[in-house]
Design a protein that fits this description.
The chain is built from nine helices and ten strands. By secondary structure, the chain is α+β, with helices and mostly antiparallel strands.
Length: 285
């Protein structure tokens, strides 16, 4: 019986096969590395989201929201740090974001062509600035008064949860309403009060809302109130005759009711005595 012959395989075929196998192996390795990178990114995003979850839960903007939605929003958070003196442009450009101040403080300002500035508001920890809701005709800047950490959400993420969550939509409306009320109050102070009344009003608001502790310099306060540092000093001198003064960045008054004469509805909203029989304004009026 004749012996069966094994056909010879060309060496070139063998080399081509080895080359194909090596390319497949490399592709699989690259794919595996890409999967690991994606998984690592997702893990980091999850960690970052978890890190900021408690902070988000403390904000009125996210009250009454289910934990599942909060977890999803937290995973979309972008965190960025800024140095004192840096300026962040908040102009409306279709890429606007919703910013939450996580640590530090700054001011929302407008500049004119002469370089003069108008302080629209001071921003502290837990305050929210939503540039995505600014008019296309309005732009402003955020100037950092100290090293600051900001969290932000993209406009698309915010809009998505506005449509999906009635609680979030309601919270956004409340936030915008509060911001409008704040600007109206500030406009009233800037236009209708004397320098002494402005300073007394500001010190009273600090006394009620921050236990009398000043976190801003006198020059920053005078800039916000729309008066010169000289006018601020003269107003302080007049207030001292009424028993009101600043010592070591703390508001002091000789009598507990000295600052009450500079109160109004906006500031008094956070005072338990405002409008009651114990309110000094009741007797003054």
């Amino acid at each position: 019986m004749p012996r069966r012959m094994t056909p010879e395989i060309p060496v070139s075929w063998i080399l081509s096969f080895i080359d194909i196998i090596s390319k497949v192996d490399k592709t699989l390795l690259d794919l595996n590395q890409e999967i690991q990178n994606i998984m690592g990114f997702m893990v980091n995003q999850s960690k970052n989201g978890s890190k900021h979850l408690d902070f988000l839960m403390s904000l009125p903007l996210f009250k009454n929201m289910p934990s599942v939605e909060l977890d999803q929003i937290a995973s979309k958070i972008v965190s960025k740090k800024y140095k004192k003196g840096e300026i962040l442009s908040l102009s409306f450009d279709g890429q606007s974001r919703l910013y939450m101040l996580h640590k530090g403080q700054g001011k929302l300002v407008k500049f004119n062509y002469r370089g003069e500035e108008l302080v629209l508001r001071f921003v502290k920890k837990s305050d929210v600035i939503s540039s995505m809701h600014f008019s296309s005709l309005f732009d402003a800047n955020f100037e950092f008064l100290e090293d600051t950490s900001m969290l932000s959400l993209s406009e698309s993420v915010v809009n998505k949860y506005i449509t999906q969550s009635s609680s979030f939509a309601s919270n956004v409306i409340s936030m915008l309403s509060d911001n409008i009320q704040l600007l109206m109050t500030n406009a009233e102070v800037w236009r209708l009060k004397t320098a002494q009344e402005k300073v007394g009003w500001y010190l009273n608001s600090i006394n009620i809302n921050n236990l009398g502790k000043l976190t801003l310099s006198k020059s920053a306060i005078s800039l916000f109130l729309g008066i010169t540092p000289e006018s601020f000093s003269r107003a302080l001198n007049k207030l001292e005759k009424e028993g009101i003064k600043i010592e070591n960045k703390q508001v002091k008054q000789s009598e507990d009711s000295s600052l009450c004469l500079y109160c109004d509805k906006a500031v008094g909203a956070n005072c338990q005595y405002y409008g009651s029989n114990e309110c000094p304004l009741v007797f003054h009026n």
